[in-house]
Protein 1
Amino acid sequence: MADSNIYRRWYDTFPKIGKDSFFVRDKWSVMRNDLTLLTFPDTKNSGQFLSAGVTVENIKGELRTGTRNFYNFMIHGEYRNKTRNKLWDVLAKGEFYVTGLNNGDYSIYATISRRLNRKLGDVHIFFKNVNRSPSFIFDNASNFNFNNNPGLTKKENIISFGADANNPFINIGFKNHLITNLAYFSDYYHTAQSSKVINLLQAYAAKKIKLTKYWHLYADVTVQQTDGSAPIKVPLLFTRNRLAYEGIFFKNLVLSTGLEVRYFTPFEAYNYSPVMGQFTPQDTFKLKNLPDIAAFFHFRIKSFVAFIRAENLNTVNFTNGFGFTNNNFAASHYPTQGFMLRFGIQWGFVN
């Protein structure tokens, strides 16, 4: 039976007496019709094109307040130009909701890449701005809005920009995200909207180090920082490292096998609200996981590809006999899996 005390304490609601489950849902049906005109200004360069179009969405929702019908009318456009000499790659696109449920929402994205040379590689910069209505789960018409407040009316605005450089020696880059009016759950069911601008800065680097002819070390590191009082929680450092024995053997065998280790520094990870399916910020529990360790064996023989992965080797525990019970946690009260063996194959037949 559903634990009424838990639902009363966490969600201020009561499951029906005699029921062994608690069920909440919004049901949506969306019909989307799009008309787009596409043109290629340079007939000798298929990498350059211009498109423009309109989209009409008809939306039906079965909600707490009954069945409701919505619509959206949106315009969109895109320009792409990858020059014939392969040195420049430019992309600009955007969409704007003229009227309807998401009236005033928009998204713009622009990026430019330049191929320098074989030694220096590529340089890439980007900019993105999204202005969007909070997800409908925050609306008072949603079955998931237990607080039944009037809804969050301010639009979320996210500005992201960054750059990266990719070359044979190292791949490095950074991203910066400025988030205004972030909508979130402050606890298991109360909704909130941030009144301050949240700044999330990320810097990352990736390097392949050749140790011997066949042994290689792949290192990926991300450092990130945000305001400690913000509702967004991230670890300061995340790293993924692979030690791999790899190469081409017996002419057709492409092999990569070794160990993979992933780790992030302790941080005040989110709580999880299972009814809402949402993560919620908290400041009373610090997540301190061991590194995730996996062994892998990947190979390809012509068109046959297969992999085997033994994951979560770090959960091995000898306290009460041998077992994989020293689990890491994804959130407070939510342990991740113990030992897991995954495998897969792909075989292509070409006549």
Note: The chain has one helix and 23 strands.
Protein 2
Amino acid sequence: MHTFQEDIQHLPLPQQFTYPFHYTPHPLCVMAATEVQSYLQGRTDWHAELQQGKMFGVLVVRSAEGTIGFLAAFSGNLAGSNHHDYFVPPVYDLLDPNGYFKQEEAKISEMNRLIQSIVPPTVIQTTEGRKNLGNTKVDATEILRSALDDNTEKHIASLKEERKNRSIALQQWIFHQFILLNAKGEQQDIHQIFETYAHRLPPAGTGECAAPKLLQHAYRNGLQPLAMAEFWWGNSPKGEIRRHGHYYPSCRHKCEPLLAFMLQGLDVEPNPLLRSVTDANLLQTVYEDEYLLVVNKPAGMLSVPGKTGQASVLTMLQERYPDATGPLLVHRLDMATSGLLLAAKDKDTHALLQQQFENRTVKKRYIAMLEGVPQIAPKGFIRLPLRPDFDNRPLQMVDFEYGKPAVTRYEIINPPYEGGQGDVQPLRNNTSQPKTFIALYPETGRTHQLRVHCAHPDGLNCPIVGDPLYGQPAERLYLHAETLQFVHPHTQERVKISAKAPF
């Protein structure tokens, strides 16, 4: 446990433990992270690896004697090792050269070399160079079979099957070695936790992230966890958005089941994402006729009911218009985004409006406030294909091979945007950093499209202020759907509706 180098007497202790999947870091966590970052800057021998980027974590703890300090951890391994004096040890050391894992891994690697030694090099070159065969329908397996006799082929198949079975068995063995604790003093291995919580197999690497390492070490040593934060150090990985020095939530794919178990017994903050705005009086109608209406959704209000049945724009409209037929809402906005939503009062109108969205004839203009100043042309297009980050839902990532096309037209607003109504609180974080107002015109409708296109290094490289997923949290996400243009499905007139951003 590290003691703080600076005086912390003026800082109140956290009332509840951090909700790890959506949080603003406690000041003590920020102080701890600053000390860890200072340590990292002094490790010149790690410079090249750290530059590639890695997630680190800090856990503020209280000892049995009442001393307040912090623990530090890194995800995965660092400089080829799981053990470094400044950081907590792993839950289980897979890199131990004398351990079962490394010995079995060596046997599997030896099987790979044996298989490659049996197959003639000319066959390997042919199968690996299939792309040079043009349009001829030549299968790599057929090439292999034609070059080998039956006995050799059977021997290779047997080796591959054994290799597969040993790999599966080794992975299962790993999951049973990671035995985790919680604040109640209970323990379960990773396989048990996933079987109970997620009803699926754990992915490779589960248990090696910073968060479970920190909590495990605290429990093992009688330290009371008070608050936690994780930050990225180094360059952003390809496709994902990770900014040097920024704080990030714990990953859900690997860590959500683990933390659901490990945090039992702690008084954890409620999920802030469940605290949606439910005051129906805040939902303003800005246009209405006998067929449709447009409302101005405040930030923090759900478009449709959440998993726990929170109030939403849809439920509020259903109460206002009990005789309306059909799904009502024609499209949605993220809970954190404010602005215009279009609703239909009957099924036919809904179908006609939705068809316009599908044909991309509805025009939308968003206003956003960005962190920093984009080093890019004042107007233009962003074309970055997107797909879900399956390991960290609901995040999206740029993927030029498997992503769906996503196009955004943008225009930097100069002089600064003056349409705001000023009904939000002043910015509480990074107020010294320059801000940029920008107009965004999405030409496709991918999930988180505007947020990723703003934050990604190959986009504007400036996150939207208050974006906890791709930037840094604030009192709100500074993104507002300002204008909607569509053809009225019954009058055939072009309708343009605007509601100025409240910032």
Note: DSSP finds twelve helices and 18 strands in the chain.
Protein 3
Amino acid sequence: MNTRHHWGLLTLALALVFVATQSLSAQTTKYGTYYYQRAHLFETLPTSPDDIIFLGNSITDGGEWGELFGNINVKNRGISGDICDGILDRLSTITNGHPAKVFLMIGVNDMARDFTPDSIAYKVGLIVRRIKAESPETKVYVQSVLPVSDEFGLFSNHGPKWRTVPVINTLLQQVAEREGVTYIDLFSVFATEEGKMNAAYSNDGLHLTGAGYKVWRDLLLEEVNGEKPEEKH
């Protein structure tokens, strides 16, 4: 083998290694380190047919769902910062276990990234159809996107788009009706008359305080545990 041919093969091999490395790097940094930390954890904590899964982004991630419902089968599969594509990329870790129920809330971070309401609804439709195809026994709940607010001066990519949330929710309700799954309107409970996040339930205009999670819990108690919340006197 002459020297020129040898160097040509070596250059090609190095180029292939570089391409492979770049591809792997792109795969492992597509969503950020926290996404992969949580996603890998969920792979080691498989779901079962008895499980009730809360699936979504940071708003879901922040809830202590098993404690809120007093039900060990209620499990948190939220990842802070997640978007529709992130749900699709990790959905098999949930559907492989054929859980009893999935409560999905996703879309607010897609909105912050300037995805249109139509594109968000389309992606949610893909998620719902995949759950139905991969785990037909699972009952699917599409929860509305919660209101956001620009009055806290935080989350500049979310808060100013508060008027967009009701548009997304109208489309999500249509997706749920079209796919024959249950739509849950949380928005109207958490929103002010103007349509922004009620400060009684949030201290940053996007995420919930304990009071907010308790309201959310009460709204879903019958669907999750088969019981109605106790009436306040």
Note: The chain has one domain: 29-224.
